[in-house]
Specification:
Layout (H helix, E strand, L loop, with lengths): L11 E7 L2 E6 L9 H16 L6 E6 L4 E3 L4 H8 L11 H19 L1 H4 L4 E5 L2 E3 L1 H7 L3 E5 L3 E3 L13 H8 L3 H10 L3 E2 H7 L4 E3 L3 H16 L3 H16 L2 H15 L4 H11 L14
Parallel strand pairs: 2-3, 3-5, 4-6, 5-7, 6-8, 7-10
Antiparallel strand pairs: 1-2, 8-9
Helix pairs in contact: 1-3, 5-6, 10-11
């Protein structure tokens, strides 16, 4: 069965441009606005890939819309959240309304955070506008590339709320220029790819537009996919642990992780391939359930 079998859906296009590499494209016209259905499908896609044991070793996330990455949340759904939750049920009192909102927000966070749960690196390649929820989405990815003409906005304060899906949790961890980050979060101002790079949000600004930035991201994904999946998935997990723990705690975690991971056959295969001047051949992380 093909790696991408049955993965594409109404607003998510999934292809395999290189062995073990997925290209996931957001495709809800006209502006990739995220409704409840869209974000649930988005999160479920990443979780399903791992649950089914598909041999994915890197993924690129981009937009199929020619002029932008995403305009953010669908405003109709945003209005539903502020009036008592997406379920549409009339709540008896404020406490019950609050519990409904809490459930909706946590469901939203879980869905948009799905790339972080993936056992493979996710490289996001953006172009055009990246507004509001778009920042939440890219913050949960491992590597962020942007076309040089991209424009970003932490837009939530313009509609009367603090960003609650990931932006304000991730950005203090992944950016180095906190003054610039706070300026943009407080003002909702548009900022350029150059500003995003200066902030530390991006690792690369790519000359050109959508095609060029996607090509650059796919090239990186191809390199990663050729590495040991045990080594890459372990590196991702250890880096995530390091972000949220002390050095001493992370060293302890790494020692425990590698006490098991160093028993992999990927190490002798890597050495044999290097000696034989050939590409290594690695087994999947999991047996497929398909």
């Amino acid at each position: 069965m093909a790696l991408t079998a049955d993965l594409s859906s109404k607003w998510l296009l999934v292809s395999e441009p290189a062995p073990h590499v997925l290209h996931i494209e957001l495709a809800r016209t006209p502006v990739n606005a995220f409704s409840s259905e869209f974000w649930h499908a988005y999160g479920a896609l990443f979780d399903r890939i791992t649950a089914e044991g598909r041999d994915v070793r890197a993924a690129v996330l981009s937009s199929a819309i020619p002029k932008l990455f995403t305009a953010g949340i669908d405003l109709a759904d945003a209005a539903k959240i502020t009036t008592g939750g997406l379920s549409g049920a009339t709540q008896i009192d404020g406490a019950r309304t609050s519990l409904a909102m809490l459930r909706d927000i946590k469901d939203f966070q879980h869905a948009i955070g799905a790339p972080e749960r993936a056992q493979f690196p996710v490289i996001v390649a953006v172009h055009g506008l990246v507004l509001g929820l778009g920042i939440d989405i890219i913050a949960a990815c491992d590597v962020r590339y942007a076309a040089e003409s991209s424009q970003f906005s932490i837009k939530e304060v313009d509609i009367g709320l603090a960003a609650d899906v990931g932006t304000l949790a991730y950005l203090p961890k992944i950016t180095g220029n906190h003054s610039l980050m706070r300026e943009m979060a407080y003002s909702a101002a548009l900022f350029s790819a150059s500003d995003a790079s200066r902030m530390g949000l991006l690792s690369r600004v790519v000359p050109g537009g959508r095609e060029e930035v996607v090509a650059a991201a796919l090239a990186l994904a191809g390199v990663i996919a050729g590495k040991s999946p045990i080594a890459v998935s372990g590196t991702k997990r250890i880096l995530l642990h390091s972000r949220d723990h002390s050095v001493a705690e992370n060293l302890e975690y790494t020692a425990a992780w590698n006490a098991a991971a160093l028993q992999t056959q990927d190490i002798p295969e890597s050495l044999a391939a290097a000696k034989g001047r050939r590409a290594p051949k690695f087994a999947p992380l999991h047996r497929s359930k398909l």
